[in-house]
Amino acid sequence: DLVYGYECRAGVCRKVELSEENFAKAISLPVCRLFCGNSIGTLWPKPTGAVQVEPLMRQVDITSIDFQLPGKKGKLWQDTEQRWLDMVHAKIPNLKLLRSGGYPLTVLINTPDIAAPKLTLDTDESYILQIAANSSSAQLTANITAGNFFGARHALETLNQLIVYDDIRRELQVTANATINDAPAYKWRGLLLDTSRNYFSVKSIKRTLNGMAMVKLNTFHWHITDSHSFPLEVSKRPELSKLGAYTPSKVYTHEDIQDIVEYGRVRGIRVMPEFDSPAHVGEGWQHKNMTACFNAQPWQKFCVEPPCGQLDPTVPDMYNVLQDIFSDMFELFDPDVFHMGGDEVSVGCWNSSETIRNWMTQRGWGLNEVDFMRLWGHYQTEALKRVDLVSQAAAAPPPIVLWTSTLTEEPYIDEYLDPQRYIIQIWTKGNDKVIKKILKRGFRIISSNYDALYFDCGGPGWVTDGNNWCSPYIGWQKVYENNLTQIAGDYRHHVLGAEAAIWSEQIDEHTLDNRFWPRASALAERLWSDPLDVHGWKQAEARMLLHRERLVENGIGAEALQPQWCLQNENECPVDA
């Protein structure tokens, strides 16, 4: 029933009307994109090492795919294999029309570590993928070599992208002979989701993890709580979620969290919790007398958005509550890195509390900024002690992430923060001069510069008129061009990577997919491949359009970027025409 096929002409896939004369040599668009041009057009992100691909395809027998591992397959590998097979099946529009037969495919996993205890900053995620077709035995072999589970599962992701559905011949095909060496440019490749402003179902979070795995993103930064709601079940403090959740059904139970953490691990993703404090707290903390300026009005005097709320660092028992929260987080998430927030602390909020002012003056402190930074430093020191108490089972105290803030500026950063312990997450603009001041002190950083990586930017205003505060909308091209080497300069070696963020004031699970995707894929290629092509995002555009189709194929509601005509007619929608 097909009318069109494709031919490779001068490195571009050209659509041709099918006829008896050209039917035999015409190919489908995904097959054409594999070989036509100077890069493998179906791979996202681009490999960083040597790539050798022979322009030859072989049909895959979908009923005969076998995985072989060095040792017993545990549940981790069983789940990994099943997900991989599900993605292969997703390529087939109608299984009843699939042509039977083809080469059996054996996937050989060569890794000394099949158990995959957990992803850390020291994990080697590199891999080598070799595909070979033996015509005499009619057998396909995909040989994967990696140091651990995480590298091996990345190789499986690449292998999956090399398998395409040929809609002309109605068969699954794979490159017959290929060798790919690959490793990420950056260790930390993440997405942040705020589940406090609006609640997101476990199903929608898993869908995000699915998309992340497809593009080798490895960190899901879970901003679980904030002043708006406290949707986290805390075993020793059930009142926090009872009073703080929007409804009793909008609470992440321990079972939910364990499910999400394991779901991420199968996909090569660490799930890192953030407990943002001492600001950004409120709902759930009622009746404790441990907060200042909760829901104070007019809110503009006390915080950046309603409802306001900050912990009161002068209340000793408040640290016991923190310890119970941290204890559950470490038990459930087993984080190799822990985020303690530290965002947007308001001096005006603390200064509005008579209790806090009296506590400070009794100690001979003043009530100026330097004194409130001393109070913040006191809080951070005491809160960190509680983190260390609950993480004693770890081989070493976990690194702590804090957002850029007044505390990370001179002179306070030198007085209160240790570069050997703290990682600083940047949320200001990429050209902010404070970034290099932080880097030159030896701090490692994670970049979330809002001018390229805040995906909630571009929408109607709330608590204001017009558009929201960080408008305009950020296109995937700007995400792709957000070069961390340019941001860090000579201190690139201190950059762990980056995260794109969705702060959910104006986003919920019904609009989640098209806010993250496919822009998060642009971030993924920046962090995995760190492309240096002089043509920038333009050289990636054709691949991006095809990649977006793959996201949709796997149940992710990725935003459309162009008319489908542009996908089918490569280079016919040029920017500079």
Can you walk through the features of this model?
The mean pLDDT is 96. Helix 4 packs parallel to helix 6. It contains 19 helices and 20 strands. The protein is an alpha/beta fold. The strands form four sheets. An eight-stranded mixed β-sheet has the order 3-10-6-7-5-4-9-8, sandwiched between helices. An eight-stranded parallel beta barrel has the order 11-12-13-16-17-18-19-20. The chain has a two-stranded antiparallel ribbon with strand order 1-2. Helix content is 31%, strand content 20%. 48% of the residues are buried.
In short:
By secondary structure, this protein is an alpha/beta fold. 31% of the residues lie in helices and 20% in strands.
The value of Rg in angstroms is: 26 Å
Oligomer: single chain
Shape: elongated
Number of strands: 20
Q: Give the mean pLDDT.
A: 96
Distance between the termini: 35 Å
Largest sheet: 8 strands, mixed
Q: Given the structure, what is the number of helices?
A: 19
Provide the structure class: alpha/beta
EC number: 3.2.1.52
Keywords: Glycoprotein, Glycosidase, Hydrolase, Signal
Domain Glycoside hydrolase family 20 catalytic: 186-530
Active site: 344
Write the layout of secondary structure elements.
Blueprint: E1 4-9, E2 12-17, H1 29-35, E3 51-53, E4 57-68, H2 75-90, E5 103-110, E6 127-134, E7 139-146, H3 149-161, E8 163-166, E9 171-175, E10 178-182, E11 188-194, H4 202-214, E12 219-223, H5 239-244, H6 254-266, E13 270-277, E14 291-292, E15 310-311, H7 316-333, E16 338-341, H8 347-351, H9 354-362, H10 369-390, E17 400-403, H11 412-416, E18 422-426, H12 434-439, E19 444-447, H13 450-453, H14 476-480, H15 484-488, E20 495-502, H16 512-516, H17 519-529, H18 541-553, H19 564-568
Parallel strand pairs: 4-5, 5-7, 11-12, 11-20, 12-13, 13-16, 16-17, 17-18, 18-19, 19-20
Antiparallel strand pairs: 1-2, 3-10, 4-9, 6-7, 6-10, 8-9, 14-15
Keywords: Glycoprotein, Glycosidase, Hydrolase, Signal
InterPro entries: Beta_hexosaminidase_sua/sub (IPR025705), GH (IPR017853), Glyco_hydro_20_cat (IPR015883), Hex-like_dom2 (IPR029018), HEX_eukaryotic_N (IPR029019)
GO molecular function, one term: beta-N-acetylglucosaminidase activity
